[in-house]
Hints:
By secondary structure, the protein is an alpha+beta fold. Helix content is 41%, strand content 13%. It has helices at residues 4-17, 25-34, 56-65, 77-90, 93-105, 219-235, 246-255, 262-290, 297-320, 345-351, 362-373; strands spanning 110-113, 129-133, 136-143, 154-160, 171-177, 183-188, 197-208, 212-213. The strands form 2 sheets. A 4-stranded mixed beta sheet has the order 1-4-5-8. The longest helix is centred in the C-terminal third of the chain and has 29 residues, at 262-290. The protein is globular. The chain starts with a helix and ends in a 20-residue tail after the last helix.
Amino acid sequence: MTDAAELRRRTKELLAAHPPADTDRTDFLKARFDAGLAWVHYPKGLGGLDVPRTLQAVVDAELTAAGAPDNDPGRIGIGLGMAAPTILKYGSEEVKQRFLRPLWVGEEVWCQLFSEPGAGSDLAALGTRAVRDGDDWVINGQKVWTSSAHVARWAILIARTDPDLPKHRGITYFICDMTDPGVEVRPLRQITGEAEFNEVFLTDVRIPDTHRLGDIGEGWKVAQTTLMNERVSIGGSRLPREGGMIGPISATWRERPEVRTHDLHQRLLTLWVEAEVSRLAGERLRQQLAAGQPGPEGSGMKLAFARLNQEISGLEVELLGEEGLLYSDWTMSRPEFVDFTGRDAGYRYLRSKGNSIEGGTSEVLLNIVAERVLGLPSEPRNDKDVAWKDLAR
């Protein structure tokens, strides 16, 4: 039986065989994966040891103390938080063996081809088509708001395979090679000046049937695994006290007594407490996650994340007065990942506006919480049993 003591022993063996100071970073990460110490709750042979997720902290503490490199999770967050759990649940053994190791090591970046110009909040209304051609599927359509598409090697993709079925039932889930002919990525410049998002055009892109996840027509069910994990990864990431957006404004308050007022103090205290409550709720959510798959509770965490970020960044700009209106750099850039708390107050204020849109709009998440957490009646829907091709567009 593998317990904390056994994990410490295995971690020390890894460090002895591959001293971080003398080992190439990628080689160390590969050795860690092969030792089952990447994500310990995953199966043996796939970077894990089939032990409870909570024991990951034991491994991480030993490796951090030894100065071992991590896999740069900010850069590969979509792969770690969304693609990997979906592949683990629905992928064939061949698919798991092919994709999980380079995904975790960070050799291959992933993106998510879900949203479309006419199917954002109502994702099931998507119109990108996938038509079977022998052992391949031919994909045509457009996706939008795709983070990291400009650096991604692979994408998780949902497309419509049967327009004669209602919108939720005619969708299939695929893995798409972003380097294939017919994949075109165009930057979408945002209010921050950056283009972390992209629009992606798919023209006669061929995907082998072996890169399908789940059964044909069951893509919506597969996508729920991705979406639930996405909301947990956005709203429920592990933070220290005063981590996240509350950190910079708290530091400013302590360092700049000249900007303080009684009213601002009361508002900051309220938001500080709310941020701490949200952080502790995130810890509870991760404990639930350790016992099984994420549920709709992740939607509540993501809702709180978006609202708090927007309120805290707005207060920070107000606290700084005229200085808060400054913006350090509006140069067009295409970052590999986004640091929500990075740069200056103006950047944080503008970037937080996207928090209530990305990863599920706040309006959609409110419906999920109402129906699936609180058990309230569903909104009337008159399109659930109508063939997708007959829907008004």
